[in-house]
Amino acid sequence: MGARELGLPQWVPAAAGLPERVTIWEVGPRDGLQNEKTVVPVEVKLEFLDRLADAGLRTLEATSFVHPKWVPQLADAEKLLAALDRRDGVRYPVLVPNERGLDRALDAGVADIAIFASATETFASKNLNSTLETQFEMFEPVVSRATAEGLDVRGYLSMCFGDPWEGAVPAEQVVRAGRRLLDLGCSQLSLGDTIGVATAGQVEAVVGGFVSAGVDVGKLAVHFHDTYGQALANTLTALRCGVSTVDSSAGGLGGCPYAESATGNLATEDLVWMLDGLGVAHGADLDKLVATSAWMAGQLGRPSASRVVNALAG
Ligand code: HMG
Ligand code: MG
């Protein structure tokens, strides 16, 4: 008899010291598909977004307005947004690195954007052709123009827990860079473990570092890749520290084309299974998510990376 037939994990009483509700920030259509070797057809992307909305997810990071040569997998951003059936109550944020990207996003009628900075010098160069310092000069006009237009701006910070070229990243360096994004006017800061090396103690130290520096923990989100299998443990630790927005990707799709050691994100289904077991509300329908990720695995021609998808897909 499987765990579902046994009623697991619903029998577990609500755990103490956790938020009552978690906002799932679904990044599969962007972080997942940006890393595919082949370009996924726009019709498949549209169906993916539709199915994720049907599954109850309310924040779907849809695509990126980056240079199409840098990420050809998302070069169809305009086409995708023009054809997208935007649902009431669903947000479709997009990544924007610079003013050119913002112009494109505004033309496409987006309401939510995310800028993405690096906590390290090397990744600022590899991912943005910039430096740790000049990336903020690139973002400043993006945030001021976007907020003046009434858009919401999220800030991502990559390499918060380790960098494949620079090794360990001091928590103070992460906090310094993250605060600059918030000071620019970002409404939220997502702490990225871009290459999936973080462990729970580090999560406590980095989140604690922000709180000690006066940052409201409600403004923090976490973004774990699962390279070393620590994403769920790290997420639980972040929840215990008071974080209540968690990034994940359906089926565990993902990676970063400019950080080769990165594998997929925390799988949304794995996150949902854990939250159900902890009595934390999230609004997603696990069966629909599993069916969506099984369908997407078929489209991509390889099995899902999610343990929960593999356990539950018929
Ligand atoms: P660059 O080559 O330095 O660009 O790239 P530039 O400013 O020198 O401009 C060169 C040409 O590109 C110009 O055209 C611009 O107009 C054009 P020309 O005048 O020569 O004809 N251009 C653009 N075209 C379309 N859209 C644009 C754009 N910008 C310039 N937005 C740039 C600098 C930032 C554009 C480039 O480095 C880039 O696109 N980087 C994005 C890389 C990326 O998308 N990485 C993955 C996302 S980050 C991530 O996955 C991490 C995350 O998940 C969190 C985590 O896990 O840690 C968020
Ligand atoms: Mg990522």
Number of helices: 12
Mean pLDDT metric: 94
* Sheet with the most strands: spatial strand order: 1-8-7-6-5-4-3-2
Fraction of residues in β-strands:
5-15%
Structural class computed from helices and strand pairing: alpha/beta
What summary fits the major beta sheet?
8 strands, parallel
CATH architecture call: Alpha-Beta Barrel
What is the third-level CATH name, the topology? TIM Barrel
Q: Any idea what the CATH superfamily is called?
A: Aldolase class I
* Strand element count: 8
Distance between the termini: 14 Å
The run of helices and strands is: EHHEHEHEHHEHEHEHEHHH
Helix content: 40-55%
The 3D shape can be described as globular
How many domains, in number, for the residues? 1
Distinct ligand kinds: 3-hydroxy-3-methylglutaryl-coenzyme A, magnesium ion
Quaternary form: single chain
